[in-house]
Every structure is written in structure tokens, then in C-alpha cells.
Amino acid sequence: MVLNSIEKLLEKYDNGETTLQEEQQLKAYFAQDNVAPHLESYRVMFQYFNTTKQELYTKDVPLKPKKNNMYQWISVAAVAVLMLGIIIPNTFGNQPLTPNDLTPEEREMYYQTKEALAMLGSNFNKGTSSFSALNLASESFNVGAEKASHISQLANTTNKLLKNK
After folding, report:
1. Using an 8 Å Cβ cutoff, are 25 and 9 in contact?
2. What is the pTM of this model?
3. What's the pLDDT band for 165 if we cut at 50, 70, 90?
4. pLDDT reading at 96 higher than 70
5. What's the rounded Cα separation, in Å, for the pair 132 and 143?
6. Is 19 helix (H, G, I), strand (E, B) or coil?
């Protein structure tokens, strides 16, 4: 009868439905020496629970975390670099150079570069206009191909009509 009640308690224990008092009964049963042979695996489990209950953690736990001041100094340095990056260009000015500020050799190179870029721009515009002509030709080719497909469909239907007669 005792074995039958222990098995019922184990079933409840496995389902997580036992009360604390029922768990104490199970612990007391598995603490004794004579346990049913088919329940020996539970005996090992309950003995493990008893031994781990008695274990203690003996190391000291630090209550105050160590402060690392390096992160504070990195943030101060980052703010300083940002401020310098904003202030220096504004104080020393961002005035663009004019051709009058250049030496005669630099001024000549400036005008030559300006002329070469203007020529490049005009040639680029001519090239893009030829692409529009190619695009127009491509569109008309597509229209012609579509009409040719209609002709092939007409030929297929006429062949079917003639073969049937």
C-alpha cells in the first residue's frame, strides 16, 4: 500500500502537481535504505537534491563595482575633437579662392581646366542626344516585331483551315 501511494506521489511530482508536504514524504521515503528496485533512479535524484541543498558559496561577492575612468576620458576627448572640428573651420574661414588670388601660372591652368570641362560637357550632351535616336529606333523595331508576330499567327490559322478542308 505504501509503495502504491509513493508511485502516485511520483506521478504527481512528475506532472508538477505535488504540494510541499507530499514532496517531503517523497524525500523521506527515498532517504531510507530500502527503496523499491524500480524506483532507484528517483532515489539518486532526491539524494542529489539533498546534497546540493547543503552546498554553500564561500567566495566574497563585491558589492561596489570597479569604476573605469577611461570611458569618461574617451567621451571628453570625443567632445573636444567634435568641437575643434566645428570651431576651426568657422574661425579660419571657408572663403573660396577666386582667380584673382592665384598666381599667373595657376590662373592659366584654371582657365584651361574650365575650358576642357565645358568642352566635355557639350560633347556629353551631343552623345546623349544620339542615344535618344537609338531609343526611338528600338521602339519602332519592337512595333514591327509585334506586327510580324500577328502575321505568323494569321499564317498558322490559315494553314489549319486549309489542312482541315
Report:
1. yes
2. 0.35
3. very low
4. no
5. 17
6. coil
Angle at 32 between CA 27 and CA 35, to 5 degrees: 90
Task: Please tell me the distance from the alpha carbon of residue 42 to that of residue 26, in angstroms, as a whole number.
Answer: 9
Residue 1 has pLDDT above 50, yes or no: yes
Residue 151 pLDDT > 70:
yes
In three-state secondary structure terms, 125 is helix
Terminal Cα distance for the chain, rounded? 99
AA letter at 122:
S
For residues 48 and 93, which has the higher predicted lDDT (pLDDT)? 48
Query: Which residues have C-beta within 8 Å of that of residue 22, sequence separation ≥ 6?
Result: 9, 12, 13
Q: Quick one: cell of 96?
A: 573660396
Count of residues in the chain: 165
Cell output for 64: 561596489
CB-CB contact of 3 with 36 (8 Å)? yes
